[in-house]
Design goal:
single chain; 3-stranded antiparallel beta sheet; alpha/beta
Length: about 270
């Protein structure tokens, strides 16, 4: 059998299993790569929200990073929840020590249900970290926070903000438009010196959308690790998420918005 490419996820945990490290492992595995993890925080959460966040110390995170780097040859890195500016800079140094490895940065600031998952001083550090990422994958609220502006409400505003993030130094930006009223679910891919590319899928009517951002970013990292171009990996990741949403649209795993079905392909076998 062909040996799988190794993807490192640096993120927080989700005790409900739908987002964070748990979603990353499932998405990376089910899209054909092998997941290693560095946990940045432990959260108490379920389908109804985040009840508590317990950050790990920088030393604990650093020791995990050191263990991974001494033993594994990474093919991609996915970065999710970073709870402090100092931790963000620690992770940035790790990324700088792996200059040939593609990096997907999902700038997680707020959970889907609206709870803050980050300290207020994190934004400046994230703006610095994004300069070292191959692509960032903000939703509309996260993009507005990075730009210190109002959230985009139209397709034109989404495109303007994506271009503005490129001018700030991002190498590529996937603006997730899932919260934007439109006939289809449209994301926009921006790359330096390239025309913006729209990625449209039909809406999936479902309450089960917990962890969609983590899932998309992890699938993207997995496909990059397997040698696909940025455009192709983005298209494949969006299609994977769409199928995962479809498969779980009628699930009722908890009392609130549930997870997507990361393992839809295996379940249909």
């Amino acid at each position: 059998m062909t040996q799988p490419a190794i993807v490192l996820s640096i993120a927080g945990s989700d005790s409900g299993g739908g987002a964070g490290i748990q979603a990353d492992i499932k998405a990376i595995t089910c899209t054909g790569a092998f997941a290693c993890t560095v946990i940045t925080a432990i959260t108490a959460q379920n389908t109804q929200g985040v009840q508590a966040v317990y950050p790990l110390s920088n030393q604990q995170v650093e020791q995990q990073l050191a263990s991974i780097s001494k033993d594994f040859k990474l093919a991609a890195i996915k970065i999710g929840m970073l709870h402090s500016a100092s931790l963000c800079r620690l992770v940035m140094q790790f990324v700088r020590n792996h200059p040939q490895v593609p990096v997907v940065l999902d700038p997680v600031l707020v959970a889907t249900q609206g709870q803050s998952l980050a300290q207020l001083d994190l934004l400046d550090a994230l703006r610095e970290l994004m300069l070292h990422a191959s692509i960032i994958t903000p939703n509309l609220s996260e993009a507005a926070s990075l730009l210190a502006c109002d959230k985009a409400n139209t397709s034109q505003e989404v495109q303007a903000q994506g271009q503005q993030l490129l001018r700030m130094g991002a190498k590529a930006v996937l603006m997730k438009g899932g919260h934007l009223p439109a006939a289809q679910a449209i994301d926009w891919l921006f790359m330096a010196q390239h025309q913006a590319k729209s990625l449209a899928m039909d809406w999936v009517t479902t309450p089960n959308n917990h962890g969609t951002g983590c899932t998309l970013a992890s699938a993207l990292a997995s496909y990059l690790a397997q040698g696909h171009s940025l455009v192709r990996a983005t298209e494949m990741a969006k299609n994977y998420l769409h199928q995962a949403l479809l498969s779980a649209k009628d699930w009722q795993l908890g009392k609130g918005p549930g997870p997507v079905d990361h393992c839809f392909a295996q379940r249909s076998c």
